[in-house]
Write a structure and sequence with these properties.
Elements lengths: L1 H55 L3 H12 L9 H8 L1 H10 L4 H20 L4 H13 L11 H16 L2
Helix pairs in contact: 1-2, 1-5, 1-7, 2-3, 5-6, 5-7
């Protein structure tokens, strides 16, 4: 009888250890996705700043911030300079979002990034409706491009490459 109890405890211990290791690996993967996502956002901002500087001068960075946040449905800008700009210049922002239809590389990276972030957003409390709204907004502006399914490791590589291509110049 004692052997049976010890055997069951060993099996349960192995199950718990395996489960804890899976959770730890998932946490590491989520952190890698978050880091890669941040790189894509920074690279998007840099790319848009270069695009807007000739036309908007001193407003290029705030416009690039707002458009980047709109692409990724980041609402944390509401009480900032970017938030004020967003409220006062909706027409310019909408026009510039529509103008991004020609930048397929950027749109591809935005779509792939948002797809990779779905689990992270859900883990942080986003509802399925909120996640769907993000893709609906891209569709509304004609910015939703078809993309292939990308594994996490490939996404991280693509994010690093996109970052290098847009930051190093």
């Amino acid at each position: 009888m004692l052997y049976v109890i010890v055997g069951i405890l060993c099996i349960l211990t192995l199950f718990v250890i395996r489960h804890v290791l899976k959770i730890m690996r998932a946490g590491k993967v989520m952190k890698k996705i978050e880091n890669a996502s941040l790189k894509v956002r920074v690279a998007t901002f840099a790319r848009l700043t270069k695009r807007y500087e000739p036309k908007y001068g001193s407003q290029d960075k705030v416009l690039a911030t707002v458009v980047t946040n709109e692409l990724f449905s980041d609402t944390s800008q509401d009480d900032t300079r970017a938030g004020v700009f967003l409220k006062n210049h909706r027409d310019i922002i909408g026009k510039e979002l529509c103008n991004l239809t020609d930048d397929k590389e950027l749109l591809r990276m935005v779509h792939i990034t948002l797809s990779e972030e779905i689990l992270i957003r859900h883990a942080y409390g986003a509802t399925a409706e909120q996640i769907e709204e993000t893709f609906d907004k891209l569709k509304q502006y004609g910015l939703l491009v078809p993309v292939e399914e990308v594994k996490t490791d490939k996404f991280i590589d693509l994010a690093n490459q996109f970052y290098r291509n847009n930051i190093s110049e």
